[in-house]
Amino acid sequence: MARTKFVCGNWKMHKTVAESLALVKELAGGLGEAAGKVQVAVAPPFTALKAVGEGLARSGPIELSAQDVHWEKQGAFTGEVSVTMLADLGCRHCIVGHSERRQFFGETDETVRKKTAALLAGGIAPIVCVGEPRAEREAGRTLEVVDRQVRQGLAGLSGEQLGKITVAYEPVWAIGTGKTATTAQAQEVHATIRTILRELAGTVADSMRIQYGGSVKPDNARDLMSQPDVDGALVGGASLKAPDFLAIVRGALR
Ligand code: PEP
Q1: H helix or E strand, kind and range, residue 67
Q2: Ligand 1 site, residue 214, Cβ cutoff 6 A
Q3: pLDDT tens figures, 128-139
Q4: Annotated catalytic residue within 93, 98, 107, 136
Q5: How many Å lie between the centroid of ligand 1 and the Cα of residue 155?
Q6: What are 201-233's pLDDT values in tens digits?
Q7: Are 168 and 129 in contact (CB under 8 A)?
Q8: Rounded CA gap, 52 and 55, in Å?
Q9: Distance from the CA of 181 to the center of ligand 1, in angstroms?
Q10: Percent of the chain clearing pLDDT 90 (strictly above)
Q11: How confident is the model at residue 192 (pLDDT cuts 50, 70, 90)?
């Protein structure tokens, strides 16, 4: 099945409001033939979501994503942000379970499950990140780890809900390290994820996008995204420079 490729830039804790606006303007102006052919989103920090959302509404077909969310609707949760608040700013997507959240901020498969369900209930499409740490890869446990993260993070969802989700396979050892998975390593894990999604969602799984993330750069993006089950990219470092991110987006064109 032909799936529209989906490329999302995760800006992490980078960019002031003014810097964010400058970057998004450059991106919108440079999409060229990729506009409308590749789905493109950016995930600025919370502080820049409003301004970037307004900038995007004026300037083009790039969608807004958040980097995280809390699962409760409201309440005494200092420092947290709800699904309603993100929807209010025009967020169409939200990253969940990024390995940095799992590593440094106590994210678990259970909190991923709660956040994913809350986002779906609030009309925001989750990008659910999974991926094995280096020790698990070296111990030959990659598929076991990813299997657990996918099944537990997506537990209890209907086929229709699953159809709204993007899964991002991000091997932890490849994030921010300059070490990218080989195309064969990526395809092996993506195909395994697709098989699990078929068990969970039936034929809906054939339309679900599975992004690859982990040191995606202009020179490796096309090869990675040419694999049959690699349906786009979640891009960290290279999404902070417009020429690099635009080159990666162009790499998604067939
Ligand atoms: C990420 O953090 O989602 C990521 C893939 O980072 P990088 O591209 O910098 O490896």
Answers
A1: none
A2: yes
A3: 999 999 999 999
A4: 98
A5: 25
A6: 999 999 999 999 999 999 999 999 999 999 999
A7: yes
A8: 5
A9: 12
A10: 95
A11: very high
Question: Does residue 130 contact residue 153 with C-beta atoms inside 8 Å?
Answer: yes
Q: Which residue has the tokens 């209907």?
A: 158
Q: Full-prediction pTM beyond 0.85?
A: yes
Structure tokens at 60: 């083009």
Does the beta carbon of 170 lie inside 6 Å of ligand 1?
yes
Report pLDDT for 254. 73
Residue with structure tokens 């809350």? 118
Question: Of the residues 10, 11, 99, 230, which should be mutated to test ligand 1's pocket, given the most ligand atoms within 8 Å of the CB?
Answer: 10
Lookup: tokens for 49: 């979501």
Q: Which of 80, 82, 15 is nearest to 47 (CA)?
A: 15
Neighbouring CB atoms inside 10 A of 127's CB total 29
Residue type for position 156: G
